[in-house]
Amino acid sequence: MIIFNLIELAILEYNGKNLFVAAKTFNNQTTTMEEFNTEIEMMKSLRHPNIVHMIGVCRMNDCLYMVTEIMAGGSLQKFLREDKGTAIQIKDLLNIALQICGAMTYLEQKCIVHRDLAARNVLVSKNHNVFKLSDFGMAIILNKNFFKTNVCSIPVRWAAPEILSSGKYHLKSDVWSFGIFLVELFTYGNEPYDDWNLQEVREGVLNGSKHRQPRSCPDQIYVIMSSCWCLKHTNRPSFDELNNSLETFKKSFGIYLTTSVLL
User: Fold this and answer.
1) Is residue 195 part of a domain?
2) pLDDT at residue 2 above 70?
């Protein structure tokens, strides 16, 4: 089970104005102070329109807070599961996918592995038109070909086979998770592998099983999803290549749209 750091709504006084912000505080049940400081230092260096912006750090009553912009629409997972979310059209799901793919391309260029890419960690703007990646508590900078972890809190349903088998993270481990993120989009927030328990997911992934095609997912998008799930990480596309594939499909959308849905 993963327990997240505590996030509170706060008011920041800035240039004589009161701004609503989000304040994330250290949770000593799951995170060391060193890990929290590492997340803060990483967030300082990130500037992308689809990554939640860190405003600063403050301390109150012996508590350290990381202050970020607030995304009033809440998590993408929650949004997709609501009535407004289930009414989203395929072209809008594509736009969400492209925004997050853009953020992941930016991280890939910086050799950063997010390690927890999922709809629950994507936030939605007030007007439901901007989507931003958040929660860098597990993120790492790769300074070699892989990073090995002994941490037990692995999001199994989103995890690549190299993580499940040996705890090793590569730069393209996030690509696998992005494929599962696309499943979340095209199932409107359903849990991936919803008919499997965690042990069945682990065994299925390691044996080469791929997530089934969501009912509302165009065949062309499922091809892109499936490319993310190559067992060997070096055979997976880069995020830049994924972005190009999604853009190509978006341009042809409505012309070559096909699905395997049985109505």
Assistant:
1) yes
2) no
Which of 113, 116, 103 has its CA nearest to residue 141? 113
Domain count, the chain: 2
Residues 6+ apart with CB under 8 A from 253: 90, 91, 94
Last residue of a domain, one of 69, 90, 117: 69
What integer is the mean pLDDT of 43-66? 88
Whether 194 is catalytic is: no
Q: Which of 49, 69, 89 finishes a domain?
A: 69
CB 145 within 8 A of CB 134: no
* Structural domain that includes position 55: 6-69
Asked if 50 and 100 touch (Cβ cutoff 8 Å), the reply is: yes
Domain containing residue 42: CATH number: 3.30.200.20
Q: How many helices (H) and strands (E) does the chain have?
A: 9, 11
Exposed (0-12), middle (13-18) or buried (19+): which is 14, by Cβ within 10 Å? exposed
Which one from 62, 83, 92, 116 is the annotated catalytic residue? 116
Alpha-carbon Rg for the chain, nearest whole angstrom, is: 19
247 shares its domain with 122: yes
> What is the tens place of the pLDDT at every residue in 236-261?
999 999 999 999 999 887 655 544 43
pLDDT tens digits, one per residue of 76-111: 999 999 977 778 899 999 999 999 999 999 999 999
